[in-house]
């Protein structure tokens, strides 16, 4: 048996739609796999009632099929489905690493990302890798058709998750299909600034680089109270705030020593709108890791 911890992730980071991703220190899924003649899936934990256990409908089943690695798989969900924190990606990434380890496949990490992305297509309809890349590789990732670039980073973060559901399909549907040259210039400038900030571990630059005039305005409109939460976080010490992935989670980058205040301010701002939420005080995390391995 092999057990793997796979982290939550935040994709896009404002200016890096379908390109940027960031592994979070918490929350995380835990995936247990044991060799079997055919794949079976059991789902436990937060939101487990919303996750199908039929391997044909589960991202993990698609991963097992792609690796030709049948197994008895238990998913202990720590990342709520439809959260904007890469819930399905955490399961797919954890299963990819666990099955690769269980069967000694020694698959190239970037190939594991591709396999996990194909699994993601079961849930979202698209084989995009902006969540599974950081879930497997850790840190900050830049995904392009030519490959994946990974940078280590050290940032204080808050991921605030309201009791709202925004589906990935709905969030992708509201993204504009075209943009003006002015918006293109602004987006490129923000993305470059954010990348420089990551390389320098500079929360001020990262916060500036999260500015986005194209995707974030359309997605934030799906999150009741977003503008108030964003303003409260900034007043409490956040350098940048944006929608995490498809939402409804809201991600804040924090100045040193302000993380607790930012978390409290975000929860209070949602509460003022009558919405319960949970804030994860966290940082940039590592990729999926084997935590136990035993003979079978």
Automatic annotation (TrEMBL):
The EC number(s) this enzyme carries: 2.7.1.39
Subcellular localization(s) per the UniProt record: Cytoplasm
GO terms classed as biological process: threonine biosynthetic process
Reaction(s) catalysed by this chain's protein: L-homoserine + ATP = O-phospho-L-homoserine + ADP + H(+)
Superkingdom of the source species: Archaea
Pathway(s) where this gene product acts: Amino-acid biosynthesis; L-threonine biosynthesis; L-threonine from L-aspartate: step 4/5
GO molecular function (one): ATP binding
Domain GHMP kinase N-terminal as annotated: residue spans: 60-139
GO annotation, cellular component aspect: cytoplasm
InterPro entries per UniProt: GHMP_kinase_C_dom, GHMP_kinase_C_sf, GHMP_kinase_N_dom, Homoserine_kinase, Ribosomal_Su5_D2-typ_SF, Ribsml_uS5_D2-typ_fold_subgr
Residue stretches making up the GHMP kinase C-terminal domain: 197-270
Purpose: Catalyzes the ATP-dependent phosphorylation of L-homoserine to L-homoserine phosphate.
HAMAP family, per database record: Homoser_kinase (MF_00384)
Family: Belongs to the GHMP kinase family. Homoserine kinase subfamily.
Name used for this protein in its record: Homoserine kinase
